Amino acid sequence: MVNANEWLNENIPKNQRAQTTGLYIYSQYRGGYNINQGPPNYQFYNTTLEGELDLNDFVNLQQLNIGSVGQDQDQQQKITHLKIDK
Question: What is the superkingdom listed in this entry's lineage (predicted)?
């Protein structure tokens, strides 16, 4: 499990966030989904986030999907606060 904002800063450059329209974050691989990787869409697997997630830089974000598969508590997303001020 990783701090959500630290993970975001390591994986999506700030200069690409304004053009991002889709952000998909999954704790495990989910077959059947095929979303183009890179701006304007980002797709991540095997990522479990915790804490605050600040999406204020994503001014054109239209779709956000943060999901977990299964009931194992270690694989559940633990986002405590979501910041989206437009």
Answer: Eukaryota
Structure token digits, residue 1:
């499990």
Compute the distance between CA of residue 13 and CA of residue 8 in angstroms, rounded to an integer.
8
Pair of tokens at residue 77? 């997303």
H helix runs in the chain, sequence order: 4-11, 14-17
Does the pLDDT value for residue 53 go beyond 90? yes
What does the angle CA 79 – CA 82 – CA 85 come to, to the nearest 5 degrees?
170
Residues 6+ apart with CB under 8 A from 65: 23, 24, 25, 26
Q: What's the CA gap between 82 and 65, in Å, rounded? A: 12
* Structure tokens that stand for 74 in this block: 């270690």
